[in-house]
Design a protein that fits this description.
The chain is mainly alpha-helical. The chain folds into two domains: 5-74, Multidrug-efflux Transporter Regulator, Chain: A, Domain 2, CATH 1.10.1660.10; 84-253, Antibiotic binding domain of TipA-like multidrug resistance regulators (Globin-like, Orthogonal Bundle). The protein has helices spanning 7-14, 18-26, 45-59, 64-73, 77-109, 126-140, 142-155, 160-182, 190-204, 211-223, 225-232, 238-253, and strands spanning 5-6, 34-35, 41-43. Strands 1-3-2 form a three-stranded antiparallel beta sheet.
Length: 255
């Protein structure tokens, strides 16, 4: 590792915004190690590791004050990461089960294999869906409740093939986003914005978001512990990338 990075370099590497890093500095969660020319903040490898732990804990739904207490008390960084890794591996296993269920369902519909009734629901958690719906209503009020009801009406007549296709499209968009992250593409890059058009159409199969609700959905991906754990299992920057890219798409293309 280099000896230190500017705030811009750390923001790009971590997927968080410069504004967020400045806020973390202001509240004492992640103080800059050095202030350079022009007031530019610089960070050492130790601070980069601290930021990683902060983002992992944020993915678990902790408030910033709670995160500060945890990272300040952690003496053994490796042991702390082992704890986080355990949770991430559990979520990856759950996602892997869902992937296997969708793949098996496609094979079943194409006549390649038979599925028992119980197999159709392997990895599917109705209680988790109810939590997500309640979180949407808490965040966005009555409009979110209307979107949920709209989604139920639209999907009421779907067969298994239609439902499996919708899930597969979400997975494809996420995989494409991971490729963009790996290529160093910024969330507001035209390639990312174009991918979010595909994300918008995938969401619109269930309900039709406007600028505010599509942006809010992206924020929920980044803020919700369940969503962050799911996306972190694919890439540690995926949730924040989707959040920022959806906001850029909404700003540029939605009224």
């Amino acid at each position: 590792m280099d000896e230190e990075w500017s705030i811009t370099r750390l923001a790009k590497a971590s997927g968080v915004t410069v504004r967020t890093l400045r806020h973390y500095d202001a509240v004492g969660l992640l103080p800059a190690d050095r202030i350079g020319a022009g007031g530019v903040r610089h960070y050492t490898p130790a601070s980069a590791l601290r930021l990683q732990r902060i983002l992992l804990l944020r993915g678990l739904g902790l408030a910033l004050s709670e995160i500060a207490a945890v990272v300040d008390e952690e003496k053994d960084a490796a042991e702390a990461l082992r704890t986080h890794l355990t949770g991430l591996l559990a979520e990856r296993r759950r996602v892997d089960r869902l992937v296997e269920t969708v793949a098996a369902t496609i094979a079943h519909l194409e006549g390649e294999r038979d599925m028992a009734l119980e197999e159709l629901f392997d990895g599917v958690d109705p209680a988790r869906q109810a939590v997500h719906e309640a979180e949407l209503v808490d965040r966005f009020g009555e409009e979110a409740r209307q979107h949920i009801e709209e989604s139920r009406r639209r999907t009421a007549g779907w067969d298994r093939a239609r439902a499996g296709g919708a899930v597969a499209e979400y997975e494809a968009v996420e995989d494409a986003a991971v490729e963009l992250i790996g290529a160093g593409v910024a969330p507001d890059d035209p390639r990312a914005v174009e991918l979010m058009d595909r994300q918008y159409r995938a969401v619109s199969a269930f309900w039709t978001p406007n600028r505010a609700s599509f942006t809010g959905l992206g924020r929920m991906y980044a803020d919700s512990p369940d969503f962050r754990a799911r996306y972190d299992a694919k890439h540690p920057r995926l949730a924040d990338f989707l959040c920022a890219a959806m906001a850029a798409y909404a700003e540029q293309r939605l009224g």
